[in-house]
Write a structure and sequence with these properties.
The complex is a heterotrimer of chains A (193), B (188) and C (430). Chain A contains eight helices and four strands. Chain A has a four-stranded parallel β-sheet. In chain A, strand 3, helix 7 and strand 4 form a beta-alpha-beta unit. In chain A, helix 4 packs antiparallel against helix 8 and helix 5 packs across helix 8. The longest helix of chain A is centred in the last third of the chain and has 16 residues. Chain A starts with a helix and ends in a 9-residue tail after the last helix. Chain B is an alpha/beta fold. The longest helix of chain B has 12 residues. Chain B is elongated and about 65 Å long. Chain C is globular and about 80 Å long. With 430 residues, chain C is mainly α. The longest helix of chain C is centred in the middle third of the chain and has 29 residues. In chain C, helix 6 packs antiparallel against helix 7. Chains in contact: A-B, A-C, B-C. At the B-C interface, strand 3 and helix 3 of B face helix 2, helix 4, helix 9, strand 6 and strand 7 of C.
Chain lengths: 193, 188, 430
Amino acid sequence: MGLTDDAILTNAAARRLLFADADAGTIALPRTGAAERTAVQSGVVTTTIGKVIQWGRYSSLWPALFGLACCAIEMMATGAARYDMSRFGCEVFRASPRQSDLMIVAGRVSQKMAPVLRHIYDQMPEPKWVISMGACASSGGMFNNYAIVQGVDKVVPVDVYIPGCPPRPEGLLDAVMKLQKKIAGELPGSLLG
Amino acid sequence: MAAVGTPMSGARAADLLERELPSAVRRRANEFGEETVWVDRASLVAVCTLLRDHEDASYTTPVFVTAVDWPDREPAEPRFDIVYMLRSLQYNDTCRLIVQVTEDDPNVPTLEDVFPGMDWHERECFDLLGINFTGHHDLKRILLPTDWDGHPLRKDYASFGEPIAFTHNLEWALPAQERPRDMPGASR
Amino acid sequence: MTALPPLGTPPAPLDPLSEQYEAGRERLGVEEGLDSIDLVELGDGTMELNMGPMHPSTHGVLRLVLNLDGEVVRECRPDIGYLHTGFEKDFERHTYTQCIPYTDRMDYLSPLFNNLGFSLAVERLLGIEVPLRGQYLRVIMCELCRLASHLLWYGTSALDLGATTAFVYAWRDREKILDINELVSGVRMHTSFIRVGGLLADVPDEFYAMVGEVIKTFPKLIDEHELLITKNPIWRQRTVGLGRLTPEDAMAYGATGPVLRGSGVPYDLRKAQPYSSYDHFDFDVPIGRAGDVYDRYLVRMQEMRESLKIITQAFNNLPDGPVNTTDRRVALPPRNELNTSMESLIHHFKLVTEGMRVPAGQVYQAVESPRGELGFYLVSDGTNRPYRCKVRAPSFSNLSALPHMVRGELIADVVAVIGSIDIVLGDVDR
């Protein structure tokens, strides 16, 4: 039960009140249907709870600081001025895993570090996601030897893998965007398709 | 070869040792512009203390200690070459000392009391190569987990993370029990 | 609050623990009344706190076990090895050219120095000399790498102490150097640009414009960075007089680089044992006086300016000519020869598949990396693979002096001291 199309379209006075600029016509929202577009014009959106929850989750993914080696430097570069990661919602890198929902495993995981990795993953509250950044985290990389865990998915479940040694910051941003699509797709009627 | 870098000779240290402690010096060689002195194990601490304290030498900075594993040397020599490098900032010189130990007796006196910086280097050498530094206050593993078995940098330690499977050797990716019996190297 | 001592005051001798505690409380302006809070006695009144390995300020996966008396650190035991990768074992399994990408990833903040050290060691064993243009380009790329590393250090250690703006500014400028890296080699960080016998290839034409831009704009940018925090009273209060290391202790622990020079010892390998034509350039070596965190900070800021001087000189005097040696043991035959000479073709094939053969022997080659003396002890047995390549990591020795430096400091100061040593765990753990 929401506002019907006729009621909204005839409410020209209300539109003028809400939008001071004269040429306020349609507000282009990304990938929304016609009904939703006109609904937002008067400041009201109808949606499902699921969609709102999805939107909240993927728009504010807070990464837990898990930079291990060289990929951590590119992760920090992604958070720095040129490739600003906070545009995608990863505003703060939380030092405490209990306050984060995304673990970006950036770097090679040694045998000594693997139990720590699992421990930190277990400390994160649900829902949580893992991005395995770089070749070393995804498969052991160039280090096929006694010291490195051959792929962090032997220790934690991974959602997105990023190739590269180290991956470019754009690669990490692409992975975050793919993860956002994945999160959006977890509930029916997703906004991002 | 001045463009490559002034090679660091250790002639100052070698000359001093031959003068003051000739019984400790077993051999001396010069290659690629660097002097190496082979030193007796028992007099190692005395040698290093002399090199640190003597005013003509003052090798006060430890650079590193490591070991090189030569399991099959011809003609037969002790298996491990324990290599020490010390630097004198005052005289801008670096010297190299080598102590040879066998496989059955990989013990060397610690230099921790002479140079505090040798503490971690000796722990690393123990960790990766199994050399026992007698007298060290706390010789435990530093780079690998404490319950690790074996010493990886020894030549008989096979370093192998995971076999990489291609289309022509898919059997390699199988666990050992499931590989075909007549595969070359199947017992690995 | 007690006033800061004026610049140039000689450092006070290290006080016994109790007096330093009093001084620490005084420094923070803690009133007498807080003494009345009851603390749980743990044996001798100390508490053991685990810092790391996942910690925002330990610059990597470093674990410190701190023995605390209230907020004062009685004992600090670093636990390293969480990034041990087994590089030295990998060196023994790969040919010399295949080892070069491995060296990139050890000290991953200044990868070109690792390449340079390894290449110089192999070149000494082979007895080959790189043409002058190759050497000058090596110097330019390495000093740019030093700038990038110091900018990164500046950004992260300022961020640790709360100066967030410094982080963003420093990384903005670091991106310009990474653009140059990408131009010459295609990769931002692990370029593998310096190879045995010279470089990967000669630099493209846009290189000159980009380096000229760096030379023109960076002096002002470094001044901007200094303006942010050098005279800032908060910064000075958090760094002056902290983490003191006497010159004798620095030498005894094997500390090198800015940690050693901050304590007043004027030893820089580029001057003492010049390599790769560093003796052609005129630059100074900044040293500190008190050996505290502030002095190490000043040393590194000044080193950035000296690097710019070196880059300017090398850039202005860059000679023409080849960048790679023509020694056939290392260099591939020219392509036009491959059409006519069977021997060249076979030689090319063997050089690419088997790699170069290096005469037997042992050599130690050290370079002055941003962290200190990065040395490669290379033992060759005459084959195409290193027999043993020991890497002497500067951060390993510098970090071993940490327990000595933080004894008696407050726990919050441990973070400042770690930042001033400028460690890279890839170097420490290898």
